[in-house]
Design goal:
Layout: H1 11-23, H2 31-35, H3 39-44, H4 53-59
């Protein structure tokens, strides 16, 4: 049996991440698949892993 980690991301966390993403020059949701483990983003947002592209897109 395989254990899968599912992280829950409240909408306010997703919005804050999108704000930092845009300030940093990453204007499309596609960028977050590459940046979800980026140390600067995870430190600023105090998260182990950031939202993925599908999570960001669902907010829209």
């Amino acid at each position: 049996m395989v254990s899968v980690d599912y992280l829950e991301h409240p909408n306010h966390d997703v919005i804050i991440q999108k704000i930092f993403q845009h300030i940093s020059g990453y204007h499309t949701d596609d960028h977050m698949d590459e940046l979800k483990h980026e140390p600067i983003f995870t430190t600023i947002l105090a998260k182990r892993r950031l939202n993925s592209q599908p999570t960001l897109s669902r907010l829209n």
